[in-house]
Amino acid sequence: MVKIEKYIEKAKRTYLVGQLEQARKNYLAVLQLDPYYTDALHGLGQIASQNGDNKLSVFYLERAAAIDKNRPDVLADLGVAYRLVGNLMRAELNLKKAIILQPENPHFHYNLGLVLGDQTRFDEAAEVYQHTINLSPNHTLALNNLANILKRQNKLDDAINFYERSISADQNYAPAHKNLADVYETSGDVDSARYHFSSAIRIGHDVGAKIREAILLPVIPDSLDQILEYRHKTSERLDQLTDQKIIIEDPLRQIGATNFLMAYHGMDDCLIQSKLANLYVKSCSALSFEAPHCAKWTPERAGEKYKIGFVSKFFFNHTIQRLNKGLIFGLPRDR
User: Fold this and answer.
1) What is the pLDDT of residue 1?
2) Which of 22, 41, 307, 319 has its CA 20 to 30 Å from the CA of residue 197?
3) Phi and psi for 320 in degrees, rounded to 5?
4) Using CA atoms, how far apart are residues 228 and 195, in angstroms rounded to an integer?
5) Rounded distance between C-alpha atoms, residue 118 and residue 137, angstroms
6) Distances (CA, A) of 43 to 94, 96, 177
7) Could you tell me the CA-to-CA distances from 155 to 9, 52, 125, 160, 299 in Å, in that order?
8) What are the pLDDT digits (tens) for 248-262?
9) Using CB atoms within 10 A of its CB, is residue 291 exposed (0-12), middle (13-18) or buried (19+)?
10) What pTM does this model have?
11) In angstroms, how far is the first alpha carbon of the chain from the final one?
12) ∠ at Cα 94 (90, 95), nearest 5°?
């Protein structure tokens, strides 16, 4: 028993200073002496998770939870591991078990909120995040995630409040700055949006925030002079970004906006939009992918019907739909 305790002590000490391989060896040494030692199995599960091997993490944590069913820390970590392997049902189940055993732990509630959000159960997730905040008023991540849900529900004033609380809790949390900038842009407060995009860039070197800041425009410009000034600055910023080595992995997730407002200026947007398109292709080579069946495409031969597709997220209850539905339905089908 003394030998096991020495191994456990060494494992925990090396784990805390980031020596994961040394900690792993010490935990394995414990299991050689006692295959049912819960702390060793738990520790191996945590190390596997940090190494990105979530399946192995589940394996060790399941064994630990089977041996000791009343360890809330083990159950919570198991729930997190199940979320990372995509098993949301088991993730939710184990996190709820952990919460029953330790209801005052805000991190358990926060991780449950993540699982519910992954299942698009946003109302439930919002309640859980609110409970997390009740337990830990300065929980930066919960404040930010609750604001995300409120923004999704178009409760922009409430979203701004929680984003600001998230930033107050941690001034250097870049995602909250970027998210708050997005809400301010939607609300038409361009100056506040630019400030928080700039903060996200300064803190986290956020590539998406750089592009969002570059194409930021007022919803309703004050004058023709302001329109010309913004167009000039947008063009300059896009040139600067094109000269930088920018890598974008997921444009929708990292940027999530288009240069749509420029269309309202009533001017020739071709040059600026081309600069933006070239920046995207340069920074995200996947955007230039061409499917084999498209590469072999040839123009329709005389007499064949044209095939036209219309795609827009605004085809539901929006001006775009109301103005264009009749036009689309009225297009001749015999051509």
Assistant:
1) 65
2) 319
3) -55, -45
4) 21
5) 23
6) 18, 21, 35
7) 50, 36, 16, 9, 47
8) 999 999 999 999 899
9) exposed
10) 0.85
11) 85
12) 115
AA letter at 75:
L
Alpha-carbon distance of 214 to 233, in angstroms, equals: 8
Q: Could you tell me the two tokens for 277?
A: 């398109």
DSSP 8-state code for residue 305: P
**What's the pLDDT at 262?**
93
Determine the Cα–Cα distance for residues 49 and 189; give it in Å rounded to an integer. Answer: 42
* Token output for 46: 């945590």
Q: Taking a C-beta distance cutoff of 8 angstroms, is the pair 27, 50 a contact? A: no
Single-letter code of the amino acid located at 3:
K
Residue that has been written with the tokens 């539905």 in this structure: 325
The string of pLDDT tens digits covering residues 131-146 is 999 999 999 999 999 9
Q: In Å, how far are 290, 294, 295, 302, 320 from 298, measured between CA atoms?
A: 14, 9, 9, 12, 31
Pick from 133, 155, 153, 152: nearest CA to 142: 133
Tens-place pLDDT, residues 108-119: 999 999 999 999
Q: Which two tokens stand for residue 185?
A: 């842009």
Q: Write out the DSSP string of 130-181.
A: HHHHHH-TT-HHHHHHHHHHHHHTT-HHHHHHHHHHHHHH-TT-HHHHHHHH
H/E stretch holding 48 = helix 38-50
| Angle in degrees, CA 256, 87, 27, rounded to 5 | 110
Share of the chain above pLDDT 70, in %: 98
